[in-house]
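Figure 3 (text version): structure tokens given as input.
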């Protein structure tokens, strides 16, 4: 948590300095996610995403994901996910394991912390990539059907080497609950991403829209 707070502070101080040293790109991410409750505390999720890069003019990635969320108690969640994507002419496979805690704070505020272990590979090159990611988000209810969120995420190249920082993200957005039963969510978000210790590291300004529906 101390590392995350440090990088959140550092990022705000250094946004302009970093912008002068690196290539910047504006991206557009669009996502549709469908959820099905298959047991009392188990939910199946299917997601389809389109990511446009090079100032939102080129398809950069088209991920399809399938995940299971296990609810354990009131605050703890665990979620394994498999994702296949087509990127740079290659079919890439990514497997993640998320563990998260959602804590209720006063004044209709929630604090969500997530740890992700991530493994990526493809069958056409010897590329194997491990990452460890930590994300912390504050969610504030603004009205009956609207929530605002703000958070940060730190990426490490190898989950067993916490000194090998890869990049970080800052994100903010609005969630609008849809439908009478509030079984749908529309999210509008912005992500600032700063890459380093990566080939062709750059700064990304990511604008996105996400639709999330609970079918059953």
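Below: residues designed for each position.
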């Amino acid at each position: 948590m101390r590392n995350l707070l440090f990088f959140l502070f550092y990022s705000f101080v250094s946004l302009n300095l970093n912008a002068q040293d690196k290539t910047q790109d504006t991206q557009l991410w669009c996502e549709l996610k469908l959820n099905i409750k298959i047991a009392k505390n188990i939910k199946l999720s299917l997601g389809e995403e389109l990511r446009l890069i090079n100032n939102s003019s080129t398809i950069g990635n088209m991920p399809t994901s399938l995940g299971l969320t296990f609810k354990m108690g009131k605050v703890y969640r665990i979620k394994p996910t498999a994702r296949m994507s087509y990127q740079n002419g290659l079919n890439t496979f990514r497997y993640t394991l998320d563990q998260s805690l959602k804590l209720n704070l006063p004044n209709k505020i929630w604090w969500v912390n997530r740890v992700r272990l991530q493994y990526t590979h493809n069958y056409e090159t010897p590329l194997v990539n491990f990452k460890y990611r930590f994300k912390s988000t504050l969610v504030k209810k603004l009205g009956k059907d609207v929530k605002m969120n703000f958070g940060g995420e730190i990426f490490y190249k190898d989950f067993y080497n916490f000194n090998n920082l890869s990049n970080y993200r800052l994100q903010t957005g609005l969630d609008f609950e849809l439908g009478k039963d509030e079984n749908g969510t529309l999210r509008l978000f912005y992500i600032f991403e700063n890459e380093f210790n990566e080939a062709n590291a750059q700064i990304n300004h990511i604008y996105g829209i996400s639709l999330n529906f609970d079918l059953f």
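The radius of gyration is 18 Å.
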